[in-house]
Design brief:
This protein is mainly α. It has 2 domains: 237 residues, no CATH class; 76 residues, Multidrug-efflux Transporter Regulator, Chain: A, Domain 2, CATH 1.10.1660. The protein is built from 14 helices and 5 strands.
Length: 343
């Protein structure tokens, strides 16, 4: 039933994208694409025996946790997870306020979502999306496809023009800003867009800063386009970009679009939960962490201080690295090398 709901929403997304009526079109595409992806991920997780209900609330998990679990259990790589996060962020901004991307970016994200949807459907259920679409479906584009960096640059120029002195189109400019901020889901686990993020971008643009200063993360985003016509496939890729600096929200420096990260969301697993996820005892999990040097890696561990108490929390990166290591390491040797010393 979840798979059927996913396919139904993807059909609606195709219909919304190819409609000749522009009224509400972008909203319909964003909402139905995200819903199609979420339902398919949940269908895949259930097929693999993964629980998709939160035990405490008794409700189905949200999209963000669904994406995280899919990276662990459905074999999605970082680029695929980043695409899903960006689609989720675009949907959230469009659902709850205002977000806008230009037609070229909308096409790339819609086509990349179709590509990923088809790949997951084939991998988990041995079906192809084409099996569920009528033969008459024909995607039409009146402009040639181009790299995402060019399309992002075009949208940045739109923002720059709308914020020019004498223009009174700030609301439209901010909607475009929110659209680009949502795309940072490709390179960041923090995908929620706040008004402070938007304000920093607007200040940076008005100060005459370039796109590499205002949106430093998007410099690492690229696309790989294969095939032609009905068989075209779009994948988002990562490449070396400008270095990113994280600063507090109230930092007086002109930090443009650099965001304040919710550390408790990124580092959410205490040591016991990390061990439980790997089906290891806590001491053996500690030994493996020492073997991999995770406690010295800022991307894996953060220590939260609450008064005199300190709490160690681990990120999904730590879980991913430990799970990969378990496929190759000899835990008996790890235990002899890094287990607790005995008297």
């Amino acid at each position: 039933m979840l798979k059927d709901k996913a396919i139904a929403s993807m059909r609606r997304a195709v219909t919304a994208f190819n409609t000749l009526d522009d009224e509400g079109r972008q909203t319909s595409v964003m909402l139905t694409l995200q819903h199609a992806c979420e339902m398919l991920l949940k269908a895949g997780l259930r097929e693999r025996g993964v629980e998709v209900f939160d035990k405490r609330s008794g409700r189905s998990i949200g999209f963000e946790k669904c994406v995280r679990l899919s990276g662990e259990h459905l074999g999605l790589d970082a680029e695929q997870v980043g695409l899903l996060r960006a689609i989720g962020a675009l949907r959230d901004e469009e659902q709850h306020w205002l977000a806008e991307v230009n037609e070229g970016l909308l096409y790339l994200y819609a086509r990349a979502a179709v590509t990923l949807f088809d790949e997951i459907l084939a991998e988990i259920f041995s079906e192809r999306l084409a099996d569920h679409l009528p033969e008459r479906v024909l995607p039409i584009s009146t402009r040639p496809m181009t790299d995402v960096s060019v399309l992002v640059g075009e949208q940045f120029q739109q923002i720059y023009d709308l914020l020019a002195p004498g223009k009174r189109r700030h609301t439209e400019a901010r909607a475009l800003v929110r659209g680009l901020l949502a795309l940072e889901g490709h390179v960041s686990e923090e995908t929620e867009v706040s008004e402070r993020d938007v304000d920093r971008v607007v200040r940076g643009v008005r100060a005459g800063q370039g796109i590499d200063k205002v949106f430093p993360r998007l410099g690492s985003l690229g696309t790989a386009i294969e095939g032609d016509g009905p068989t075209v496939k779009v994948h988002f890729t990562k490449r070396a970009g400008a270095p990113v600096q994280f600063v507090p929200a109230d930092d007086p420096r002109a930090a443009a679009a650099v965001r304040e990260v919710d550390l408790q969301r990124k580092y959410h697993m205490p040591p016991a939960k990390l061990a439980d996820e790997l089906s290891l005892t806590l001491p053996r999990s500690t030994a493996l962490r020492r073997q991999l040097g995770l406690d010295d890696d800022e991307d894996c561990l953060h220590v939260f201080s609450f008064g005199s108490q300190q709490h160690r929390r681990y990120s999904d990166n730590a879980l991913r690295r430990m799970r990969e290591a378990l496929k190759t390491v000899d835990m008996a040797e790890v235990w002899r090398e890094h287990g607790p010393r005995r008297r």
